[in-house]
Amino acid sequence: MASRFWTQGGSDSEEESSDYEDDVENEGVETTTQTAGSRYLQANASDSDDSDGQKRVVRSAKDKRFEEMAATVDQMKNAMKINDWVSLQESFDKINKQLDKVMRVTEAEKVPTLYIKALVMLEDFLNQAMANKEAKKKMSSSNAKALNSMKQKLKKNNKQYEDLINKYRENPESEEVKDEDEESEEEEEDEDEEFEEDPDNIRAGSGSDNDDDDDGEEAEDTNDSGWVRQTGRRDKSIDKQFKNPSEITWENVNKKFKEVVAARGRKGTGRFEQVEQLTFLTKVAKTPAQKLEILFSLISAQFDVNPGLSGHMPINVWKKCVVNMLIVLDILTQYPNIVVNDMVEPDENETQKAADYNGTIRVWGNLVAFVERIDVEFFKSLQSIDPHTREYVERLRDEPMFLVLAQDVQEYLEQAGEFKAASKVALRRVELIYYKPQEVYDAMRKLAEQTDEGDNGEKAIEEESRGPSAFISVPELVPRKPTFPENSRTMMDMLVSLIYKYGDERTKARAMLCDIYHHALLDEFSTARDLLLMSHLQDNVQQMDVLSQILFNRAMAQLGLCAFRVGLVAEGHSCLSELYSGGKVKELLAQGISQSRYHEKTPEQERLERRRQMPYHMHINLELLEAVHLICAMLLEVPNMAANTHGAKSKVISKTFRRLLEVSERQTFTGPPENVRDHVMAATRALTKGDFQKAFDVINSLDVWRLLRNRESVLEMLKAKIKEEALRTYLFTFTSSYDSLSLDQLTKMFDLSEVQTHSIVSKMMINEELHASWDQPTHCIIFHDVEHSRLQALAFQLTEKLSILAESNERAMESRTGGGLDLSLRRRDQDYAAGTGAMGGKWQDNLSYNQGRQGRSGFTGGGGRSLALGQAGGYSRGQLRGSGGYSGRAAAARGSQMDGSNRMVSLNKGVRV
Amino acid sequence: MATYDLTQRIAPNLDRHLVFPLLEFLQERQMYPDEQILKSKIELLNKTNMVDYAMDIHKSLYHTEDVPQDMVERRVEVVARLKALEERAAPIVSFLQNPNSFQDLRANDQHYNLQMLHDRYQIEALYQYAKFQFECGNYSGAADYLYQYRALCTNSERRLSALWGKMAAEILMQNWDIALEELNQLKEKVDDPKSFTSPLNQMQSRIWLMHWSLFIFFNHDNGRTLIIDLFNQDKYLNAIQTNAPHLLRYLATAFIVNKRRRPQFKDFIKVIQQEQNSYKDPITEFLACVYVNYDFDGAQKKMKECEEVILNDPFLGKRVEDSNFATVPLRDEFLENARLFIFETYCRIHQRIDMAVLAEKLNLNYEEAQRWIVNLIRNSKLDAKIDAKSGTVIMEPTHPNVYEQLIDHTKGLSGRTYKLVGQLLEHAQTQAAR
After folding, report:
1. Residues A476 and A553 in one domain
2. pLDDT score of A726
3. Do B351 and A800 make contact, defined as CB atoms within 8 angstroms?
4. What pLDDT sits at residue B114?
5. A845 chain-B contacts, CB cut-off 8 A
6. How far is B275 from chain A (nearest CA, A)?
7. Into how many domains does chain A fold?
8. Is there a single domain that holds both residue A692 and residue A597?
9. Which residues of A are less than 8 Å from B269 in CB distance?
10. Do residue B417 and residue A911 have CB atoms under 8 angstroms apart?
11. Given this model, what pLDDT does residue A192 score?
């Protein structure tokens, strides 16, 4: 039953399921231990690798089956004589089951004539019985019932064998003779001529039942032996056709090849079988071009082995596919006059030209497409294999194999001058490398060096053991070993520069993202940031495909982590905040699917989503990401909250963080922290009180830190930052309680150096955050009492709102006249909110500086239409510059425009004071 | 002090001929061994036609009287070429010099005129000749010819290179006013999006322009304001940030020396902060100390380094010979202003400062410091008083009136709204008109 079970995954017809039901019914009736036993035995047989013993077993089993069948037919005859429809029905079911077994044992394409004979007999008898109404009336009720059901069953069953039955009816004798032959001499079955016309015939006739069987075997026997055995016979038949090497000509190889190709995709063509046939043909190919052509078909056939989009190609087939590709490359390098192209339809007999032919030979094919497909299959297999198993690791080890292939193809294409195609292949390589830190890269390099030798040997042995040696033997010209530079960065640089030079838009964008990711991985924040900003990727990421958007999100996440590692908290936060704003991090990074309560997904969506998941080894650790995001938010938000105690709504840096904080404050009891969120919240509580030590301890106890390479220095940095923010928070919170405060006391309190403290406090004074000044001789901070009264504060808020209103009026006007800004609005609406925000900043080539400024500070009459665009661009720039701190360049202003203008107003205040 | 020398980074963006002044300066300052400089000079000259000069240098370098054969050969070749070009350009030159020839031109048909000139006199020859003159070091001749050529030429690409050539010639002749005019013309061309195929080219041109303009700006009287106007434009600033961060030094210096450009200064500080990892020298670090980290001790140290840098920079360290007393005007100005910067910021965050400390911070002695402060107070630049008894300066707290602030905030709004309405109406009119 195992084989049956497996086939359900495949694309099989209803026929099969009905058969299946029949089986189940019969199981109840039939209790003969013998069949059960034999079934078991048979399953064993198909599993065993021992081919010597197998032959004997097969033969005896086959005979036995035939005997059984004959016995059943006899039983049926007896039943007919006494007109016993009940037992007839039983026998019929039995014979159907036996047929299955017979077919499996003999592996015949054809249904045995014995069976057909029985069917014909049964049909005749049935018709007779139906015609005889009187006899029918006389029947007992159970008998009549059996007759009726028999009638239906037979009708259904016979449909499958209609052709054969008709044939038999026409010419019972000859069929029988042939049948005899078949039974006795299996090997002689296929005369050359007969074979040529037979397969179609039989396939059409014997149709689906046979197909079921095949499929069953296929699925069951990805562990080889089964289908090797099965197709071995087929092989043999072709073998016979090309028995005599001297007789093989280009024509008959070509003819056979066409035939095999024509059968592709047709119902009843075994996919493995086809692969096997083509493999054989590659060996007998007469000219290199022909071999190439067949190899291409072979590779395509190998891709076909796995139907449907969801599953992945069997791993061993994948490996063979790679090997075949390498052979293709061997041929191509050895015969440089062969050109592979998928643009022109080559001449029918193009491949006839022999190896010594001088001109160019065109062969249809597309190397890049093959490489891409192989990569996709590799990716898919990693997606579907459980990452916690050994299998996954084993699979990962195949990566160098693909890298070799990609490298070879790329080199070949570069030599052939097809740089555009080469850049596509280079991108595939980049995408396998970009996420690897140096350590992983080194490990891969070592692995590649070790395993490759072993692999090579294996391949050679395999090659030799396989039947006759090929006519066109090609030495292994293409290196089978990847050459990796010492450093992953050099490799990236090499590939990426090629892509930038020749790639198309999408390839370039993806390569750029990978490049950014990789730079970020190596802690080169400024380089990565410059790349990101220079490429304007943020502006048009919305127009890209989903996969590229995911890559973009990954790059942003990695950039955020990188910023944090090098101690740039604000930058880190602005990179990450957007990812977390929607609460759909997992989707955005394609690292799993989170359940949403309010939004039901259709199965279609789910399937799509599943298909774009990242394999486990490429994941960015979500806990670490969350920890970094929340800590960044905490460091920014806590002093910010302390600074704006009243008018709290005015300036929110991280909405996510605020919400979490509210939730945690609402809890009646706060237990010890468990997850990342709890930890950060506990730290926040400590920090708001200015207790930096406790805050740090809580955060330090997170175990995600072990994932960081330079853990010590990062924690050191983190501690310094926490101290700094604690100091700021303390000052904000308790200014009103002090009249003066000495520097010494502060340094002791926060364990900072005097210079640092002085610098921090000075900065606060300059930025007008703290209304105080130093008293230099005594090293004290003197606080000025300039707190605004509530009324005054409200008045300020009002004026701010007013200027926002004016601001938005202007913008509305702009969009009416020039439409420069509606882009940002549209962006905000989009669901897949990857990195957006108007952070074009630095490189945005605004039309003219002056115009930009005008746009900001109000219009100067003579604008009109042509001006509008410049104004829009200029506006965003002016705003960015104005919005304080780092934001001028990276991220920050990604929040709403409103927010930005808000900040701008407060800055104006600062300037004037 | 060679660590802060920018010649290597600047030179690739200059014309060969423009590099000479830099090398001269380096030689004068003796930052590198003489031999090295001479060698690089010869290397420079090898590609130009100033063979005589190269020979002289060769002689002084190796202390011989012989000249290598290839130089001699090259000289002959150059002279021959010059002759040939002169001949070809002769007709047009004579045409231009002869006032009567204008009769040939038709007053209103420019197209005809150009065609005629092109056919009869071969304007192209003029260009070649001018270029060759320039290569030979005859800048004034080259400048004249190029000027004329530009008026006649129709090919926009050629015109652009003629502009460049003219500007280089004027710079080398030290005609700063004319050079400035050329610069403005060139700037217009460079900013014109039509004249470049790719943004990259345009940016490269901008970078060249900025490098060349350094000569003009640091010699022209009004240069320090103009340099800010040019460099601080967004497009130019972008170019600096992307490809030539070392130019930040000059912009920073200009900002420090120039008192009138405060509004842009804040933005510039941010740029410096951003570029910290791509470019750093004492001058930018000084600004970072004062305005980013508020580290006044550090700023003071940097100030000393800045002095060195200025003296060793070919553009900044220009000497003025005053009888037999050489000064570097920019250095003095820089130091004065830098001191003011420190003091200003320092005062903003302090209420009471010990005079002794202040004097130390300002690199002045006590008496000087006191005089300096008194002057500031008298000029009402500083709202403070000196407490002579305790030896401290006491700042007057400056807290603006809340109501004033509110008024300030709202003042602009009505104007803005008014303008907005005006524009809306105008827009409506144009819409209606259409």
Report:
1. no
2. 92
3. no
4. 66
5. 199, 235, 238
6. 9
7. 4
8. no
9. none
10. no
11. 39
Touching A: B residues 85-114, CB under 8 Å: none
Q: Look at A552-566, A567-581, A860-874 and tell me which has the smallest mean pLDDT.
A: A860-874
Which of A605, A620, A635 is a domain's end point?
Answer: A620
* Residue A409 sits in the same domain as residue A425: yes
In A779-838, which ranges are continuous DSSP H helix? 790-817, 822-829
The more confidently predicted of residues B103 and A97 is A97
Question: Is residue A235, in this structure, part of any structural domain at all?
Answer: no
Query: Are B417 and A842 in contact (CB < 8 Å)?
Result: no
Among A571, A603, A620, which residue terminates a domain? Answer: A620
How many other CB atoms sit within 10 Å of the CB of residue A180? Answer: 11
CATH of the domain at A655: 1.10.10.10
Please choose, from the candidates A850, A854, A852, the residue with its C-alpha nearest in 3D space to the C-alpha of residue A841. A852
- Joined together, the tokens standing for residue A807 give 């601001």
Q: Are residues A473 and A441 in the same domain?
A: yes
Higher pLDDT, residue B324 or A119? A119
Q: Does A795 touch chain B (CB under 8 A)?
A: yes
Measure the CA–CA gap between A467 and A743, rounded to whole angstroms: 89
pLDDT at A630: 92
Q: What is the dihedral of CA B256, B262, B264, B266, to 10 degrees?
A: 80
Nearest residue to A561 via CA among A624, A614, A615: A624
CB contact under 8 A, A859 and B408: no
Confidence of residue B113 (pLDDT cuts 50, 70, 90): low
Residue A427's domain comprises 249-452+469-488
The answer to whether residue B378 scores a pLDDT higher than 60 is yes
DSSP code string of A273-291: HHHHHHHHHHHH-SSHHHH
User: What are the tokens at A12?
Assistant: 């099989």
Q: Using DSSP, how many helices (H) and how many strands (E) does chain A show?
A: 41, 5
Residue A842: pLDDT above 60?
Answer: no
For residue A817, tell me if it sits in a domain: no
**Contact assessment for residue B67 and residue B59, using Cβ atoms and an 8 Å cutoff:** yes
Q: Which of A247-256, A737-746, B137-146 has the highest mean pLDDT?
A: A737-746
Q: How many residues does this entry show for chain B? A: 434
pLDDT in tens, A471-497: 555 666 666 676 777 788 888 888 888
Q: Is there a contact between B238 and A792 if contact means CB atoms under 8 Å apart?
A: no
Cα A522–chain centre separation: 25
Range in A454-463, A537-546, A664-673 with the lowest mean pLDDT: A454-463
H helices present in A82-171, as ranges:
85-106, 113-131, 133-138, 141-160, 162-170
A844: in domain = no
Task: Give A331's contacts (C-beta < 8 A, 6+ positions apart).
Answer: A288, A291, A292, A295, A338, A472, A474
> Given this model, what pLDDT does residue A563 score?
92
Among A residues 529-548, those touching chain B with beta carbons less than 8 Å apart: 534
pLDDT band at B304 (very low <50, low <70, confident <90, very high): confident
Q: What is the pLDDT of residue A177?
A: 43
Same domain, A555 and A586: yes
- ipTM greater than 0.85: no
SS3 A363: strand
Q: How far apart are CA A824 and CA A826, in angstroms?
A: 5
Structure confidence by residue, pLDDT tens digits, B242-276: 888 888 888 888 888 887 666 778 888 888 888 88
Please identify which residue in the block is written with the tokens 């130091």: B335
| A808 contact residues in B (CB cutoff 8 A) | none
* pTM for the structure as a whole: 0.66
CA distance A401 to A396: 10
Average pLDDT over chain B reads 80
Separation CA B346–CA B350 (nearest Å): 6
The verdict on A267 and A407 lying in the same domain is: yes
Give SS3 for B111.
Answer: helix
**Least CB-CB distance to A881: which of B267, B350, B419?**
B267
Same domain, A562 and A666: no
**Does a structural domain hold residue A362?**
yes
A614 and A638 in a single domain? The answer is: no
